[in-house]
Amino acid sequence: MLHTEATISNNNDSQWIKQETEKIRLQLLFELQRFENGINKHFDSLKNNLDLQQKKSSELLIINSSYRQITESRIFIPRNSLLTDLFQISHIRGLRSVFVAILIILVIQVSINDIIENGSLIFECFADLHVALFIWLIMQLSTAIIVFMGFYSWTKNRCNYWEHLKSKTNNQKFLCPDFSQYLYFLFAPTLIYRDQYPRNTIIRWDFVLKMFGEFIASVFYVYYVVVRFCIPTYANLNHSEITLPIFLSVLFNSIMPGSLFLVLGFYGFLHCWLNAFAEMLRFADRMFYDDWWNSTSFAAYYRKWNVVVHDWLYTYVYREIYILTGRKNRSIPAICVLLLSAIFHEYIMISALGFFYPVMFLLFGVLGLICLFLLPRHKGVAYNILIWLLLFVGVGLQSCLYFMETYARKSCLTNNTFWDKLIPRSFVCRMSLPLSKHLKIDL
Hints:
The chain has 443 residues and is mainly alpha-helical. Among the domains are: 1-46; 177-411, no CATH class. Helices cover 69% and strands 1% of the residues. The protein has helices at 2-58, 82-86, 90-118, 129-156, 161-166, 179-187, 205-235, 244-280, 298-305, 307-324, 331-353, 359-374, 381-411, 418-422, 425-428, and strands at 242-243, 441-442. Strands 1-2 form a two-stranded parallel sheet. α8 crosses α13. The protein starts with a helix and ends with a strand. Mean pLDDT is 77; it is low at 58-68 and 431-443.
């Protein structure tokens, strides 16, 4: 009897061992299968990257080997914005929290001052928003209808249009883009047209709301910086002569607000605004900027600051001028690109401020060219610090001069002529002011 019970017990133990062994075997097989799938996925990704590199290499223009091979057009691939990936790191998120805390302090301080001095909150920079939206709507409709119909008519009346069609292969079904493709291009965060862009499968509406919320926060951030640091400084300039010591003091007081304008403009528009539209349109290539903050030369800074505009300038201006000039000199197309960019930036400032004061053009198109060609292009922390110093001084000087001109136009008498829009009033208003309101600029 005892022998039988021992035999049964041994059989049960043996069965349990077999079951556990089978479980371990199945678990190992599962882990090996998952590992194999991961390896296959990795190699598939590597193969796709190699295919992409071969595609890019096939599109390279044949140029002299002594020149830098940067002649490929924009290749769109699915990728996140750089800050989106960096914000996955807790240390980088901590820096963003610092800016949020500063914004909260500014909101509380300005709100308390408004309530104490005026009895209510005052917002002076958000008037006529409906007018701006209406103008934007008219511009979009005119671009969507008039420009598209113009190009459509142009293609229909080309003399060699049918000859061009005959040169196409018989397998190609769509020879001209649809209006839907053109309409998508108008709202997509890119200036380079493609019939097809890489698209995501879903829309993360929580991400869209987050991006728009951070964009609005950036706008309010700029507003509170202006109210707290800029208005008190420049409003008092109307009561005293502006001598060289006063000008230098105001200039250095403007560097910190100007630097915040630079960072907030970058983050609000190039990161938040463009990512929000990219997510709504399922646009997968989010490379709107590169690590411009690590630039050690202005050439690298211009390439990395705004990749969207840089791609357009390179594709349609730089490369075309480079080819037209015989592919022998890169300086001429670089100068043309920088001057065109300076003119466009000045056009934006004229439209926003309502007067002509070419500070942006001089800083961007003159001093920018000097820095582009004369500053050494070396790597290292020292050169990165130099770039940041020049950027800070530049945006500080720009903020200082534009604010001075704005307040001079508020304080000085106007004659409502065409030349009054062109001549800086901060330099000539002494001739039109009463003695009690002289705004003298003695540099």
